[in-house]
């Protein structure tokens, strides 16, 4: 199996090393793991691409490349340059430092990389490690992802639920709970949740030179979402697996809208 890995935390991020180990286990001794990741951190860029300017790409080692672009750029660089047309069998994006559950999903470059792979017709899985007080006490805060990542990827692959003929094919969002590896309770299929009464915001600051700057900051991350949804099951100690697709249509109101516009 040929696997492409990328992330949004950057080529030197510890989570990418965890993902490389997961990918190597899945690919097997006869497989290949290719890395194309951002040269610098690209957290929060979502599914953006470098549409208006070129990006530098550099080979750092055997099957290891860095680009001055987003995770979606990295997938495009791999498919149309690095791999020379030999498409991967699977794209893995992550392991993100911090959860990509609930509304975080919409901002995530980790998700953006997996989404681009799906749009290109490649099976893709995004993986993220929820952080919290328990992971802060661990020598390896990625312990849950490191210990359970390969098994989760295999189980998703084994379901066969990929819909390769769909225009907007499925990809998967995996979040590991903020606990030690031995404390993980299991895996749950979960819908994307929503953290109520919290959101991203802008925090103004004045620099020493008197100029005004804004820091974008997130809200509290340990507020549970609705029961059974991603962040809720993560905070209960379970790995969440959420099937996603890039179709943003609100299908549940389409018929009512058509009737209202008639």
Explain how this protein is built:
By secondary structure, this protein is of the alpha/beta class. It has one domain: Stationary-phase Survival Protein Sure Homolog, Chain: A, CATH 3.40.1210.10. The protein is built from seven helices and eleven strands. Strands 3-4-2-1-5-6-7-11-8 form a nine-stranded mixed sheet, with helices on both faces. Strand 1, helix 1 and strand 2 form a beta-alpha-beta unit. The protein is globular, with a radius of gyration of 19 Å.
Give the SSE layout.
Blueprint: E1 2-6, H1 14-27, E2 32-38, E3 57-61, E4 64-67, H2 71-82, E5 90-97, H3 109-119, E6 124-129, H4 133-136, H5 143-159, E7 171-176, E8 186-189, E9 201-206, E10 212-217, H6 230-235, E11 238-244, H7 251-261
Parallel strand pairs: 1-2, 1-5, 2-4, 5-6, 6-7, 8-11
Antiparallel strand pairs: 3-4, 7-11, 9-10
Helix pairs in contact: 1-5, 2-3
Helix content: 25-40%
CA-atom Rg in angstroms: 19 Å
* Mean pLDDT score: 97
Within CATH, the superfamily carries the name Survival protein SurE-like phosphatase/nucleotidase
How many strands appear in the DSSP assignment?
A: 11
Subcellular location: Cytoplasm
Protein name: 5'-nucleotidase SurE
Organism: Gemmobacter lutimaris
Function: Nucleotidase that shows phosphatase activity on nucleoside 5'-monophosphates.
């Amino acid at each position: 199996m040929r696997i492409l890995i990328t992330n949004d935390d950057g080529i030197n991020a510890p989570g990418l090393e965890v993902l490389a180990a997961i990918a190597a286990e899945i690919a097997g001794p006869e497989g290949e793991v290719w890395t194309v990741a951002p040269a610098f951190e690209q957290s929060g860029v979502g599914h953006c691409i470098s549409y208006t300017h070129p990006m530098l790409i550099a080979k750092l080692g055997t099957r290891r490349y860095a680009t001055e672009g987003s995770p979606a750029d990295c997938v495009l660089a791999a498919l149309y340059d690095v791999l020379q047309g030999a498409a991967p069998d699977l794209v893995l994006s992550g392991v993100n430092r911090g959860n990509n559950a609930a509304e975080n999903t919409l901002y995530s470059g980790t998700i953006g990389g997996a989404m681009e792979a799906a749009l290109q017709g490649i099976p893709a899985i995004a993986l993220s490690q929820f952080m919290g007080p328990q992971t802060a006490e661990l020598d390896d805060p990625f312990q849950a992802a490191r210990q359970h990542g390969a098994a989760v990827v295999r189980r998703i692959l084994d379901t066969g639920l990929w819909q390769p003929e769909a225009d907007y094919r499925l990809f998967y969002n995996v979040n590991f709970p903020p606990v030690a590896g031995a404390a993980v309770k299991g895996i749950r299929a979960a819908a994307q949740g929503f953290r109520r009464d919290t959101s991203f915001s802008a925090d103004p600051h004045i620099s020493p030179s008197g100029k005004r700057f804004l820091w974008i900051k997130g809200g509290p991350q340990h507020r549970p979402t609705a029961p059974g949804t991603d962040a809720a099951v993560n905070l209960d100690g379970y790995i969440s697996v959420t099937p996603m697709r890039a179709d943003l249509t609100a299908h549940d109101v389409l018929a009512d809208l058509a009737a209202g516009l008639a």
